[in-house]
Amino acid sequence: MARMGAELRRQDFVEATIRVIAEHGVANATTRRIAAQAGCPLASLHYVFHTKNDLFYAVYESLFSLPPQALEQVPAGATAAATAAEVLRQLITWFIDHPDAARAQTELFFWAMRNDPQMASKIYSVAIEATEQALQRAMGTELSEAFLKASSRLLIQLVDGLTIAWSAHGDLDRLRAETETACTALALLVASH
């Protein structure tokens, strides 16, 4: 049997954790259940991730790459307002295509706020920074640093709010309609700057 590299094994555990949390919640995301979902021995999980918090943070790290991925779909030469709206639209589209990630992200963040406030704060800070960098690359220097920070925070709040609402109502058509409303609002804000 061929040996699997630690990085590939790490990604398997992250993906398994997302599926387990989406199905069973954070409280029932045991390392045993995650290892079984990944099809790996429990000892391998403990070798790759020393603590469950390390594993949970790795799930977030895998989600931090979303803003740059969303920008790949944004047409070049768009206005700052259109770019911001399209980034929001593409992020929600990514979550629609990966509903387990949407559920896991929400569950994990609320868990972190209750059980590890420092992790929650770090997650939020890193998400803001990644979003700011993504918007900066997409929009160039059209926005001041203060407005870029405010726009990034609003974009994250809109994504979080839309995904939490979707978790509650489960209606994909409603999510798409609410996303378009949020895109229009974000575009109007950015255009007014």
Account of the 3D structure:
The chain is an all-alpha fold and 193 residues long. It has 2 domains: 6-50, Homeodomain-like (Arc Repressor Mutant, subunit A); 64-191, Tetracycline Repressor, domain 2, CATH 1.10.357. The chain has 10 helices and no strands. Helix 1 packs across helix 4 and helix 6 (80-97) runs parallel beside helix 9 (145-169). It is elongated. The protein starts with 5 loop residues before the first helix and ends with a helix. The model has no long low-confidence stretch (mean pLDDT 88). Keywords: DNA-binding, Transcription, Transcription regulation. InterPro entries: Homeodomain-like_sf, HTH-type_TetR-like_transc_reg, HTH_TetR. Residues 7-67 form the HTH tetR-type domain. Residues 30-49 bind DNA. This is TetR/AcrR family transcriptional regulator.
Question: What is this entry, summarized?
Answer:
By secondary structure, this protein is mainly α.
What labels describe this entry?
193 residues; mainly alpha; Arc Repressor Mutant, subunit A; 2 domains; 10 helices; 0% strand; elongated
The structural domain count equals: 2
Identify the CATH class of the largest domain. Answer: Mainly Alpha
Number of helices: 10
Report the principal-axis shape.
elongated
The percentage of residues in β strands lies in under 5%
Secondary structure elements and pairings:
Elements: H1 6-24, H2 31-38, H3 42-48, H4 52-63, H5 66-71, H6 80-97, H7 99-115, H8 117-139, H9 145-169, H10 172-191
Helix pairs in contact: 1-2, 1-4, 1-7, 2-3, 6-7, 6-9, 6-10, 7-8, 8-9, 9-10
